[in-house]
Amino acid sequence: MKVAIVGGGFTGCLMAIYAAQKGYEVTLFESGAELGGVLRDVNIDGRYFYNGCQYLGNSSLESAGLLSNLFQFSHEYGSVTGLGNRKIRVLDDCSQPALDGKAFVSTETSIDQSALTRLKSYGYNSRNLTQWASHFGDLSKLDWRCLIAMQIERIYFPEDSNLSVLKLQNERANQLTAIPRRLRMPNQDVEAAWLPSQGFNAMFKKIGLLMKSLGVTVNLHAPVKPLINSDHFRIYSRGFEYSPNLTIWANNPTPLLKKICSVSLITPPIRMRLMFGELKKGEKLPFSTPYYWQVFDETSNVVRLYIYEMQGAIRYTAEAFSTGSEAASWNNLDSLMQQIGLFGSHKRCGMIEQLRYVNFSVEEYNAIESATPTLLQMGIIPGAWQHYGREEKIRHIKHMFDEFI
Predict the structure, then answer these.
(1) Angle at the Cα of 212 from the Cα atoms of 51 and 73, rounded to 5 degrees
(2) What distance in Å separates the CA atoms of residue 334 and residue 377, rounded to the nearest whole number?
(3) What is the CA radius of gyration of the chain?
(4) Could you tell me the sign of the dihedral formed by the alpha carbons of 203, 204, 207, 213, in that order?
(5) Does the bond joining 290 to the residue before it have cis omega, within 30 degrees of 0?
(6) pLDDT, tens only, 201-213
(7) Which pLDDT value is given to residue 69?
(8) CB 48, CB 41: distance < 8 Å
(9) CA-based nearest residue to 311, from 49, 10, 34, 45
(10) Cβ distance 182 to 93 under 8 Å?
(11) Each residue of 116-173: pLDDT tens digit?
């Protein structure tokens, strides 16, 4: 059986390995010059930085035989919250907003439709939450699942001593409120995660060699156009047509859905600003690395700070809304550093602007779900585009792949 993989990012590469290990003839198409997609490291004057807060789970890596090239660490994180609090709250082991007072959950709005109606469920807290989240797009149109990537699908109320009981007694409150891991699972070890010690670019070189050893044909600089004639699906790339028995579309779904299902995806991307730098050598850190901070502060455009070691240095990648001046973004980052206990100087190495295609509307989510049976009937496995997280996407794709064959 011939299997085509469209997209040479992490999901496409892992699925190519999975299919090849099962003995199928696999051909991968990647429009770019290299494998890796959004996981590829950012190179600034010979220094490499993670392209955002990046880390991997183990299930797909282990099945592909790739864990030996990575190092394991405890998945540690914290949050910094303003959003109307009396003062900035800095918490460890919590990646959701931590708000003052007792938990309040309204029963008047839906929590499984738009992002806006879900946030309105927090009553008097909803104004600050929606004002902050509106930087990600039109909340009245975005599907509520988009809040998962924003880390505000649940809210923590650390002053509410009755929160655990409330979550047990009220399912709506359980879905809308969060409890830090150390309180939720006090007797369990911290979740493990993995990173390539030499960076993601080096990891994808090894993945490319592994695919080659398994007989996978990798086509770079190979953008793909979907073709259909009499219910027969084909791929057109670089002047040639390819007729696979099965296609895994792990790439931008827009051209596929428009061609096959007449579904148009029109939700605009998010414009983000990434800042890169290094901490002062010898600075004593008040936390282990890698460590990331999720930031919810209406006075700052910084939304996430990732601190990690690479090339023998402690480096950071900060993500921010692309608003205000570049100088203001750096100043906001300086303030955040002090809030989390980093008082030493840090070197600013560079900044880039980036578009993030992560959002989808309620209508688009429903359209993607409805299109899935049609795609499967034509021998096309969709890339689980509406799911959040690499492991979840790969798990869904593997399930559909195994069902198909």
Answers:
(1) 40
(2) 53
(3) 22
(4) negative
(5) yes
(6) 999 999 999 999 9
(7) 78
(8) yes
(9) 49
(10) yes
(11) 999 999 999 999 999 999 999 999 999 999 999 999 999 999 999 999 999 999 999 9
Token code pair at residue 373: 């049976």
Q: Which domains does the chain have, with CATH numbers?
A: 2-37+199-267+360-404 (3.50.50.60), 42-75+191-198+270-356 (3.30.9), 96-184 (no CATH)
Instruction: Kindly state the tokens that stand for 284.
Output: 């004593």
Taking a C-beta distance cutoff of 8 angstroms, is the pair 38, 201 a contact?
no
| Positions in the chain short of pLDDT 50 | none
CB 40 within 8 A of CB 199: no
Residues in the chain: 405
How far, CA to CA in Å, does 136 sit from each of 62, 212, 358, 361? 34, 40, 10, 12
For residue 115, what are the CA distances in angstroms to 118, 142, 160?
5, 6, 25
Statement: the pTM of the whole predicted model exceeds 0.85 = yes
The one-letter amino acid code at 203 reads M
Tokens for 384, please give them.
Answer: 């689980």
